[in-house]
Amino acid sequence: MSKLAIKGGNPVRTNLFPSYNVIGDSEISAVTDVMKSGILSRYLGTWHKDFFGGPKVQEFEANWSKLFDSKYSISMNSATSGLYAACAAAGFSSGDEVIVSPYTMSASAMAPVVCGANPVFADVDPETFCISADTIEARLTDRTKGIIVVHIFGGPANMEPIMKLAKSRGLVVIEDCAQSPMGEYKGKKLGTLGDIGIFSLNYHKHIHTGEGAIVVTQDDRFADRLMLIRNHAEAVVDAKSKDQNIEYNGDLVGFNYRLGEIEAAIGNSLIQRIDDLICSRIENVQYLESKLSGSDCLSFLKVDSDNRHCYYVHPITYNSELSGVHRNTFVAAIRAELAPCRLREAEGVLCSGGYVRPLYMQSFYQKRTHPVFKNASQVATESYQPGSAPNCEKAFGESLIIHELMRPGFSKDDLDDVVFAFEKVMENIDDLYGD
Predict the structure, then answer these.
(1) Helix 412-427 vs helix 327-337: angle between axes, to the nearest 10 degrees?
(2) DSSP states of 189-204 as a string?
(3) Is the pTM of this model over 0.90?
(4) How many angstroms separate the CA atoms of 133 and 128, rounded?
(5) Which of 59, 110, 131, 388 is most buried, judging by how many CB atoms fall within 10 Å of its CB?
(6) CA geometry: angle 390, 394, 396, nearest 5 deg
(7) What percent of the chain is helix, strand and coil (3-state, nearest 5)?
(8) pLDDT value, residue 1
């Protein structure tokens, strides 16, 4: 093959890859209808028929419940808001501990902190990059009140043993499904296996409304608390309790976590295409893996036949001992061969090593000046130490490659360029020795 681009050769591709833009005529028409109606939001932060939002919001929630066979679907203005509301609905408070993943977006671990509880990090399973029953059990104390399971990259954690452990200890399980809508575990949709599930509608997710989220639950009490927290609970509970003869203990603090009518209208349109968009990702990943399966230094996730991975990104495990080249050098060579995607040019080529730095390495956990850490247990503090999650640290530092060059809209020619870039670097790997 020709000389590597990182060594001065010609790259495989210089033309931009296609953008991932799910907004089309149907969504534009839906937004236009809302604009013409003049109802951009219909929430009132008081006990009133409009406490539950406008017609598009309620329609979107009903559509989501139907798709996910969920008794309740509660829209929010972001998945971060959904996580915060879920922790508050679960009743996490000062002195409590919540088991979380160190390998996720920071909000997943910050949600307990907002309630005054301590996040406790459990290591990830190297096969799924999610926390597991074994790593969770190693962090349990008499203060543990819940578990936040993140189905990272679009694939499921091994939920059966996690749920068995949680039920034996009376723990609330929150599923962070921001990256995994329509993912499945043993034939059941992610987000419906635990007590509360949160889905993201942020602009770079599988379907998006710009910003937004949906929280699902089968539990009447959790649903009631989630809706109150979303919309100024403290201003609503007195009138609601009088009207419905429900007693509240005064612990609820509400926020403005409300989704607007425009976002809900976009969601109503996109939800009709969500399965097709997921299937496109799966097909593209299967194509890439079939072409790259002959490489000794690359391995791919094993997805059981009754599970479904919906590939927010495509994770690849890289073996530097077999290649003789560090993962970061290998990724740099891949990036040099390819081009950015339209609308995301400033991010460069959407291929990287390691995903996020383990969360406990952030100064928030290292310095621990926030009042929430005042009474942290020894187990919690130990989970903030470097080396406390070796699988996570190995993935971050040396073994994991992720890329987004498999999203809907990529043609076979686009995918072949990705394959050719990997093949070119692997066939010229000797040129990278010593870098």
Answers:
(1) 130
(2) ETTSSSSEEEEE--TT
(3) yes
(4) 13
(5) 131
(6) 115
(7) 45, 15, 45
(8) 61
Amino acid letter, 84: Y
Q: Report the chain (435 residues): mean pLDDT per 10 consecutive residues.
A: 92 97 96 98 97 98 98 98 98 97 98 98 97 98 98 98 98 98 98 98 95 98 98 96 92 96 98 98 98 96 97 98 97 98 97 97 98 96 98 98 98 98 97 90
Q: Residue written as tokens 């990278």?
A: 432
Identity at 80, one-letter amino acid code: T
- Contacts (Cβ under 8 Å, ≥6 apart) of 81: 213, 230, 255, 257
pLDDT at residue 434, as a whole number: 82
Amino acid at 334: I
C-alpha 20/C-alpha 406 separation (Å) is 10
- Residue 231, CA atoms < 13 Å, CB-side half-sphere: 26
Torsion, Cα of 28, 31, 35, 36 (10° steps): 70
CA–CA separation, 153 vs 45, rounded Å?
Answer: 36
CA atoms within 13 A on the CB side of 387: 0
pLDDT of residue 435: 82
